Amino acid sequence: MSRSNIFILIITIPLTFFQSVSGKDCVCDLKNSDPAFPELKLTKVETTAAQCTGTITSERMTDLDRLLLGLQQRIKQLEENVVMLEKEDDKKLYAAVSLSIIELEFAEIQDLLNKLNRTTSDYHHLGVQAAAQFEDMKDSMVELEKFDNMQVIKKDRENQRVKRELEQCKIEHKATLPPPTVPPRRCGLGQMVNVVGPRTYSITVYSTSYPYGAWGRDAKPAPGDENKYWLVMLTSSNVYGHYVRQYSTLSTLLLGIGPKDTYISSSNPTTNTIQGPNMVMYANALYYNCYYSYSVCQFNMTTRAISTVALPSDTGYNNKFPFAHLGTTYIYTDMDFVTDESGVYVIYATTSNFGNVIISKVETSNPPVLGQTWKTSLYKMTATNTFMVCGVLYATRYLDKETEQIFYSYDTKTKEERFDLKINIKKMQTNIEFLNYDPRDNLLYAYSDAYIVTYELIFQ
Ligand SMILES: *[C@@H]1O[C@H](CO)[C@@H](O)[C@H](O)[C@H]1NC(C)=O
Ligand SMILES: *[C@@H]1O[C@H](CO)[C@@H](O)[C@H](O)[C@H]1NC(C)=O
Known about the structure:
It is built from six helices and 27 strands. Helix 3 runs antiparallel to helix 4 (92-145). It has helices at 3-11, 39-55, 58-87, 92-145, 152-175, 250-255; strands at 15-22, 25-32, 192-203, 213-216, 229-233, 240-241, 243-247, 260-263, 274-275, 280-282, 285-289, 295-300, 306-310, 323-324, 329-330, 336-340, 343-349, 356-363, 369-379, 385-389, 392-398, 403-411, 417-418, 423-426, 434-438, 443-448, 451-459. A hairpin with a 2-residue loop joins strand 16 (336-340) and strand 17. The longest helix is centred in the N-terminal third of the chain and has 54 residues, at 92-145. Strands 20, 21, 22, 23 and 24 form a five-stranded antiparallel beta sheet that branches. It has a domain at 193-459: Tachylectin-2, Chain A (5 Propeller). One 2-acetamido-2-deoxy-beta-D-glucopyranose is lined by residues 117, 121. One 2-acetamido-2-deoxy-beta-D-glucopyranose binds at residues 117, 121. InterPro entries: Olfac-like_dom, Olfactomedin-like_domain. It comes from Sinocyclocheilus grahami (Dianchi golden-line fish). Keywords: Coiled coil, Secreted, Signal. Residues 1-23 form the signal peptide.
C-alpha cells in the first residue's frame, strides 16, 4: 500500500459542510462523520512487510543450494581420496600426507555441515516468525480496508492481479522458445538445457591479487594424472603469465597444499609467455596465445618445449578483438582456447571476417597444426566468453552483476547458428575472465574476479 493511497483515502472520507456568512468573511466548518483514519496502524503494517521481505530473500535460498552442492562435491572428492589412500597404503610417506589432507577435508565438511544445520534452523525460525507476522498483518489490513469507501484498494488489487497475470503470460511466452539443439546421442549427451550452481566456489591461495587467471583439469590426462588440477595467474599487468601451477587433487588446490610450478620462462613478459587468460590444458600441454603475436603456443609440460602455429595474419591480437560488453573490455582476450569431447579449438576474429568469431580446430600434434575452420557471424566484442560442448560453440554475454547469459550457439556439424538462447549462469562475482568446458566431468570451469568456480551443465 503506497502513500498516495493514504492521500486518496483521506480526501474520500464523507464530509459535512456548514457554511456561515458573517460580514465579508466566508468560513467553512469541516466535520468528519467517520472515525479518524488509523495511519499509525498502516505505517506499522508497511514496516513489518518490508522487514519480512528483507529477511526472506531468494539470495538466502540460493545460499542453501550452494552449500548443499558444495557439500555433495566435497563428499565425492573425499570418497575418491579415501579409495586412493587405500590403494597407496604400501607407500608410507604418501599415505601420511594423504591422511592429513583427508583429515583437513573432514574438518571442512564438518564445518559445512554445521553451517548447513545453522542455515536450516535459521530458516525454520524465520518461517515460524514470518507466519505469525503475516497473520497479524492480515488482521490489520482487514480493519484498514473498512476505511476504503471508494474501493480504491479493491481496484488497485484488481490491477495488480491483472499485471501479475500479464507478467506470467510473458514468462510463459518466453519459455515456449525451443531449447538449443544438440542432437541426442551425439557424445552421449542430450540437449543442453540449463546451467546450475555454482557447484564449487573458492578463492585460491593467491587471494584477490590477480583478477585474471585460468584453471581446470587436463581434458586428456596421462594415466595417473586424472585428478590433477592446473592454475595459471596472469601475474604481470593482468595480461601475462609465465608459469603453470599444478595440484594433485581438488582438495589440495582448495587448501593450497603441495603445488608444483612449471616455468615457461624465467621473466615475464617475454617471447612465448602467456598473453590473455583463455588457455587450456590437453594431453599434458598448455595451449595459449603467445606473447605479442597472432600465434598459438603449445607448451609441453614434460619437456618444457614450446611449439607454435600461426593464425591468419589479419587475426586480432594485442587487444584488437577482445571479449567485451558495454561497460567493460576483458583485456587481451583476443584468443580463446576451448576443449570438448573431440579435442582443442581456438576461437578468434579476423579483419577479413569483420571482427566476427572464427573457430579453428587445433590438431594437437607436435608441432600443432590448424585443422578445420568455421566462420560465424557472431561479432566477437559482443560476447564475454565462449566454450564448446560436443562440437557446438556457445557464447555468453553480460546481463548484469549477478547474471551471465548463454545467448548464442554454433553447431560445427550442421553450421546452424542461433542467437536466441537464454540460459542464465548465476555469477558470484561481477566478471568472468575465463570459461571452459571439461568433457570428463561435464562441468564448466570459470575464473571470476580471482575466484575459481564450477557449474554443472544439465542435458535433457
Ligand atoms: C543442529 O543444531 C542443533 C541446535 O541448533 C543441535 O541440537 C543438533 O545436534 C545439530 N545437528 C547436527 C547434525 O549437528
Ligand atoms: C611432450 O613431450 C613428451 C616427451 O618427449 C612427448 O611424449 C609428448 O608427445 C609431447 N607432447 C606434445 C603435445 O608434443
